[in-house]
Specification:
The structure is a homodimer of 380-residue chains.
Chain A lengths: L3 E11 L7 H4 L6 E6 L3 H5 L1 H11 L3 E5 L8 H13 L4 E6 L1 H13 L7 H5 L10 E5 L11 E6 L4 E6 L7 E4 L9 H19 L6 H22 L5 H14 L14 H13 L3 H15 L5 H12 L5 H14 L16 H10 L13 H9 L1
Parallel strand pairs in A: 1-8, 2-3, 2-4, 4-5, 5-8
Antiparallel strand pairs in A: 6-7
Helix pairs in contact in A: 4-5, 7-8, 7-9, 7-11, 8-9, 8-12, 10-11, 11-13, 11-15, 12-13, 14-15
Chain lengths: 380, 380
């Protein structure tokens, strides 16, 4: 086992109607809120009105930044940070999915400074403080509600990268599974795939932490059991709850304790697909994972076989495990090949270039530029 | 799933030589330390000297309270709190096992007030603030290093009870598995039994949280795999690390998410055994658990069978599961009957009275006073 620090200061409120606690929590952090959200789904669902009512109940002042895009971009972050700075806000309330909350984390770092949020990604700047962030989650997927990571795109530079800092933890996050009921089947499936992929990234990371591996496979098995049930019954609160809880646990630190780090090459490749084709994050991962597993089948054969055997509870070798994992993604209705999203051989050079620009390397199983064409072939 | 709050502010430093970080952490909380420890084992191991060196390196002032007793008593807590109050300490550094750290938690609550620490247990007083607590753990067992619970005895009243408050979380805890290497085989086994019992208390608590159940059985399986190995090889750092990590995870909140609460009747009964016979905590639990399982075998038959089947990975009914669990405790060298610790039928009335005084009720499967003699018979 590796030395590690277990520390997660986020207070997570989970369950039915937990957002009714917002008027108690919000005033702890000041008076003026920057309310950040996406492109209308919370207005359609009525959540926008509920949140405005709760902010009113708390007697807070509010300035709004709506319209955060999926696969979030630095332009939104910088504009929202400018608005927050101008209005001297005390806190951010982010209501939405991973894109909104990831954006809000970088907005929180950018408000106190005089430069673009991208400077944290490029390494030009290091954060010294952050505006407190409270989140209300509407999509079970990325785990951002209880971690220190944020993914952002810079289309001008052709980059979509992840960033993590201890100042990025939300102070409090409110997770009502009922708020995820409006999510349609395809995005529900991508969320399930995303949480499974997070587990895999940590499982295939370097380091020997058997309990963490057991917890990882527990989370995947939960998703395997209840994910398909949920896709057949999207309005079931209890199934929504099981998946939402699993998604949080997949990437809140727990799945990394005692390991060196995750691998994350698949996320790197997936980000490039999202950048070029606006592929939903979870769908990009179900295309990249089977290819990555096939590429590293020989050197990782014991690890892959052990994973499949534990997940499916029957003796499987590496090849059999890969087939079953790909089958699981298919069962969720997710794409597993580039052709499934209409991307053909003609895109290969563009993808190779994207992998190079985004420095897709992997933390445990190292990738070189020479490996990229082979990986893309395996995705075809 | 039940609504729940996931919140654990303790910063846990885990791994080899992590205590070398004390000079960085301690000064964050002030200048004057109350250094609390037990009855000499840290002096014999050399840890006392190391900690004194690190406190010196940090340039802190220190006042010491040594001699905290196992199965800790309120007299030590009140005396140490008085010392801390007199010297106006800024923080507590607790170095030891569960008894020392549990005592330190109540000392931290008692220093700012003018009454006995027992008043928090009796409900006479509610804490308003606590002196910051930093811990260095020397025994893998209770999970106290990362939770808000503390168990204390009041021998004058014939009580040994648990208490929990959000102010009881240690600010930081330092866990170097190497510091547990001096723990002898029997106490190592009791620690393993304790962590398993914590998992069981939560598993048999009310509420339906399948992922939490999976995590619970993952922790028990880790203990089942590495516990016996460790008992055959007490100086192995890596085995010490796996057990220490498992013990922390068994009771840091994780095993309760989405459940109503744990059951804890077995802990209640175990505390009475410890109170009367100074039975080590873990050993009291391995006597009480088989009896409790047999007592509730019929109403809990599906739950018990599912637990055994998952732990031992073969189809087991409730009776078979109980036998295997008892066998596991025996394999660890722990007592499973009162006769194993020299307690005979003559003690029955005393134990019944102890259960009554300590209000042993259970959180999920309710016990009445009429049940106590039957439970004690099952322990014989």
């Amino acid at each position: 086992m590796q030395n590690f620090i277990a520390y997660n200061p986020t207070k997570l409120h989970f369950g039915k109607d937990v957002i009714e606690g917002l008027p108690v929590s919000l005033p702890k952090y000041g008076k003026r809120i920057l309310f950040v959200y996406g492109r209308g789904s919370i207005i359609r669902s009525g959540l926008y009105d509920s949140v405005k009512r709760l902010i009113g109940q708390a007697g807070m002042e509010v300035v709004e930044y709506g319209g955060i895009r999926p696969n979030p971009v630095v332009e939104d972050v910088d504009a929202a940070a400018g608005l927050g700075r101008k209005h001297n806000v005390d806190m951010i309330l982010a209501v939405g999915g991973g894109s909104v909350i990831d954006s809000a984390k970088i907005i929180a770092l950018t408000i106190p400074v005089n430069h673009s949020g991208w400077d944290f990604y490029s390494g030009k700047a290091k954060p010294a403080k952050a505006v407190p962030l409270i989140t209300v989650l509407t999509l079970a997927a990325t785990g951002t509600e209880m971690n220190r990571f944020a993914v952002l795109s810079n289309r001008a530079e052709g980059k979509k990268n992840g960033y993590g800092h201890v100042l990025c933890y939300p102070k409090e996050s409110f997770l009502d599974p009922a708020l995820t009921i409006p999510v349609p089947g395809d995005y529900t499936a991508y969320g399930i795939a995303d949480l499974i992929a997070h587990c895999f990234e940590l499982y295939f990371g370097a380091g020997d932490a058997t309990l963490t591996d057991r917890i990882i496979t527990s989370i995947v098995r939960e998703a395997m059991e209840y994910g398909p049930q949920l896709l057949g019954n999207l309005t079931d609160y209890d199934l929504r709850a099981r998946i939402m809880y699993a998604a949080t646990m997949a990437l809140n630190g727990l799945t990394s304790y005692g390991k060196v780090a995750g691998d994350w090459a698949v996320h790197g490749m997936g980000h490039v697909l999202s950048l070029h084709y606006d592929t939903p994050h979870g769908a990009s991962l179900t295309i990249a994972y089977p290819a990555w597993l096939k590429f590293f089948r020989e050197p990782m054969k014991e690890r892959i076989a052990a994973l499949g055997t534990e997940l499916f509870r029957e003796p499987l070798d590496a090849g059999g495990s890969i087939l079953r994992i790909e089958g699981l993604f298919r069962q969720l209705g997710c794409p597993v090949r580039l052709s499934d999203i209409g991307v053909g051989h003609g895109e290969k050079d563009k993808l190779v270039k994207g992998f190079i620009i985004n420095e897709v390397e992997g933390g445990n199983m190292k990738l070189t530029h020479e490996d990229y064409p082979k990986l893309i072939d395996l995705m075809m």
